[in-house]
Amino acid sequence: MWAFLSSQPVQTALIVGTCAALVSALIGVFTVLRGNAFAGHALADVSSAGGAASFLLGISPLLGFLGMAWIAAFGMEFLGVRKARERDLATGVVLGAGLGLSALFLYLDVTTTSTTGATVSVMFGSLFAISRGLIWPAILAVLAVFALVGGFYRPLILTAVDPDLATLRGVSPRWMGLLQLLVLGLAVAVCALAIGAVLATALLIGPAGAAIRLSRRPLQAIVWAMLMALAAVWMGIWMAYESYYWFSGNAWPVSFFVVALIFLFYLLAMLGSAQQRKFRYRAATALPGIQES
Amino acid sequence: MTNQRAILAVADLSVDLGGRSILRDVSFDLHPGQLCALIGENGAGKTTLLRTLLGLISQRTGTVMIDGEAPRKHRALVGYVPQKITFDPDLPLRTRDLVRLGLDGHRLGLPLWNTRTHAAVDAALQAVGAEDFADRRVGELSGGQQQRAVIAHALVRKPRLLILDEPLANLDFGSANALVDLLGKLIAQQQMTVLVTAHDMNPLIPVMDRLVYLVDGRAATGKVAEVVQPEVLSKLYGYPVSVLRHGGRILVLPDAPENADVANLNRCAGH
Ligand SMILES: Nc1ncnc2c1ncn2[C@@H]1O[C@H](COP(=O)(O)OP(=O)(O)OP(=O)(O)O)[C@@H](O)[C@H]1O
Ligand SMILES: [Mg+2]
C-alpha cells in the first residue's frame, strides 16, 4: 500500500481522478435530470478533437478538451434546441462533425509529431501518464464548476423540473441551459483528461443515472453519485496498479477498470431500486393485521 | 368593487400562433376577490389566453395589465398551475421539494434549512391536503395528487392572482368538489383572485362571479346570467344554440333544424 501511495504517477492519478469524479457526478445529475445525456455524451466525444489538436498546437490538453467542448456546446445551442427531437438531431450533427475533425487531428499527430500514444490517450485516457503540471488547472476547473452549480443550484433544478414554472419565477430557461452546457464543458474536459474523451460519458452518466434511481432528493442524488464515482476511480486506479502483478508485468489500463466498476455499480443500483420499489409496493398494499405467509 | 383597481385587465387582445389567428379581440377585467371561469371547448384558445396573460406568449395586438403594470413586472403576484406537467417517475424530487421551489426556486445559493420556509411549505401542503404524500417523489404520485402538488407550488408564495388551467379535468366528482371548495376558501380568507379554465362550467357555478366564454378565439364576457343567454351565445357560435337550465345545472346545445327534429321523433316513436 505504501509503495502504491508514494509513487508519483499514482498520486497525480488520484488527484486528477478525484477531480474528474467530483465534477462529473455533480453535473451528471443535472444532465440526466434534464434528459441531456446524449448531449453530454456528444460533448465528451467532440472534445477529443480538441485533445488531439493540443498535441499539434503544443498547448495543454485540458485547454484543448475544454475549447472544443465549449465550441460544440455553442454549436448545439445555436443549431436549434427547441424540441427534444430537433435537439437530438443538432447534437448528432455536431457529434459527427467533431469526430471527423478528431480523426484528422489524430492522423496529423501521428504523422507529423510522432506522438504515437496520442490516439489512445486522447480517446481512452492514460491516467498514470498525466503531467503534474495539470493538477492545478484541474483543481481550478473543479472549483469553478462547484461555484457555478452551487450558486445557481435552485434555478437549475427548477428549470429541470419544468421550464414554464422556472420562467414564472423569473428564471430564464435559456440562460440556465447555456450555463449548464458551459459547466458541462468544464466537467467533460477534466473527465476526458482522466479517462479519455470516449469514456468520459461513463463517468458523467453512469454514477448520476444510478444515484437518481436511489434518491428522493436532488442533493441526496448528488452525494450518492459522488460516492459512486469516487469509489470507481479510486478502486480503478488501485486495481490498474496491482494488475501489473496479476498479469505478470502487463498492467491493464486504468480506464478499463474505472468504467467496468461504474457499470457494476449501475447494475447494482438498478437491482437495488427495483427491490426498493417492490418493497414499497408491498408495504403500501399490505392490509393491516394480515401477515404474508 | 368597481372603484377598486382591477388586478387583471385585458383589452382587445389578439394572438397569432404559427401564422394562425388563435385569439381575436378578447377583453375582460378581473377584480380582487373574484373567481372568473374561462370556458371553452378543446382548441378554443383557453391555454393560449392564459399563457399570454403570464407573458409566456406575446400578443399581436392589445394589452394585458396585472395590477396596472406589464405581466413581467408582477410575476410574484401570480401563481400558475399548468394544464399538464409530466414528471419523470425517476425524478429525485419530493412533493415537499417541489412546493419549496415555488417559494425560493429563483434564489441563488444552496437551499439551507430554515423555520420560516418550512412553515410556509407545510401550510401550502396542508391547504391542498397533500400532507399524506409530502415525502413521496412527485413522479410516482397519481395525476390528481400531482395536480395538488403543483397547486401547492403555486400557492406557497401567497399570490394575489391564481391561474389554473383545466384543474378539474383529471379529477373525480368528489375531488373536483373539494378543489372548488378550496378555491372558494382561498377567495374568502385571503382575498385571492382566481382565474380557472374548464370545458364544463357546471362544477364551477356555485363559486364563479364572472365568465369568459371562448368560442374559436372570440370571447363573450360578463356575469354568468348575462353571458349564458341564447342570443349572446348564438352570436358567438355563429349558429343558433339553446340554453337549458335544470336543477342548477346549465347545458348549452346547438339547435337541431326543426324538420329533422320532427322526423326523428316520428322515427323513434316507430312510425
Ligand atoms: N404553438 C402553436 N402553434 C400553432 N398553433 C397552436 C400552438 N399552440 C396551440 N395552437 C392552436 O391554438 C388553438 C388553441 O389552442 P389552446 O391550447 O389554447 O386550446 P385550449 O382551449 O386550451 O384547448 P384544450 O381544452 O384542449 O386544452 C388550437 O387550435 C391549437 O391547435
Ligand atoms: Mg388547454
From TrEMBL, chain A:
<protein>
    <submittedName>
        <fullName>Cation ABC transporter permease</fullName>
    </submittedName>
</protein>
<feature type="transmembrane region" description="Helical">
    <location>
        <begin position="181"/>
        <end position="209"/>
    </location>
</feature>
<feature type="transmembrane region" description="Helical">
    <location>
        <begin position="88"/>
        <end position="108"/>
    </location>
</feature>
<keyword id="KW-1133">Transmembrane helix</keyword>
<dbReference type="GO" id="GO:0043190">
    <property type="term" value="C:ATP-binding cassette (ABC) transporter complex"/>
</dbReference>
<feature type="transmembrane region" description="Helical">
    <location>
        <begin position="138"/>
        <end position="161"/>
    </location>
</feature>
<keyword id="KW-0813">Transport</keyword>
<feature type="transmembrane region" description="Helical">
    <location>
        <begin position="221"/>
        <end position="241"/>
    </location>
</feature>
<comment type="similarity">
    <text>Belongs to the ABC-3 integral membrane protein family.</text>
</comment>
<keyword id="KW-0472">Membrane</keyword>
<dbReference type="GO" id="GO:0055085">
    <property type="term" value="P:transmembrane transport"/>
</dbReference>
<dbReference type="InterPro" id="IPR037294">
    <property type="entry name" value="ABC_BtuC-like"/>
</dbReference>
<feature type="transmembrane region" description="Helical">
    <location>
        <begin position="53"/>
        <end position="76"/>
    </location>
</feature>
<dbReference type="InterPro" id="IPR001626">
    <property type="entry name" value="ABC_TroCD"/>
</dbReference>
<dbReference type="Pfam" id="PF00950">
    <property type="entry name" value="ABC-3"/>
</dbReference>
<keyword id="KW-0812">Transmembrane</keyword>
<feature type="transmembrane region" description="Helical">
    <location>
        <begin position="253"/>
        <end position="272"/>
    </location>
</feature>
<feature type="transmembrane region" description="Helical">
    <location>
        <begin position="12"/>
        <end position="33"/>
    </location>
</feature>
<dbReference type="GO" id="GO:0010043">
    <property type="term" value="P:response to zinc ion"/>
</dbReference>
UniProtKB/TrEMBL annotation, chain B:
<keyword id="KW-0067">ATP-binding</keyword>
<dbReference type="Pfam" id="PF00005">
    <property type="entry name" value="ABC_tran"/>
</dbReference>
<keyword id="KW-0813">Transport</keyword>
<protein>
    <submittedName>
        <fullName>ABC transporter ATP-binding protein</fullName>
    </submittedName>
</protein>
<keyword id="KW-0547">Nucleotide-binding</keyword>
<feature type="domain" description="ABC transporter">
    <location>
        <begin position="8"/>
        <end position="241"/>
    </location>
</feature>
<dbReference type="InterPro" id="IPR003439">
    <property type="entry name" value="ABC_transporter-like_ATP-bd"/>
</dbReference>
<dbReference type="InterPro" id="IPR027417">
    <property type="entry name" value="P-loop_NTPase"/>
</dbReference>
<dbReference type="InterPro" id="IPR003593">
    <property type="entry name" value="AAA+_ATPase"/>
</dbReference>
<dbReference type="GO" id="GO:0005524">
    <property type="term" value="F:ATP binding"/>
</dbReference>
<dbReference type="InterPro" id="IPR050153">
    <property type="entry name" value="Metal_Ion_Import_ABC"/>
</dbReference>
<dbReference type="GO" id="GO:0016887">
    <property type="term" value="F:ATP hydrolysis activity"/>
</dbReference>
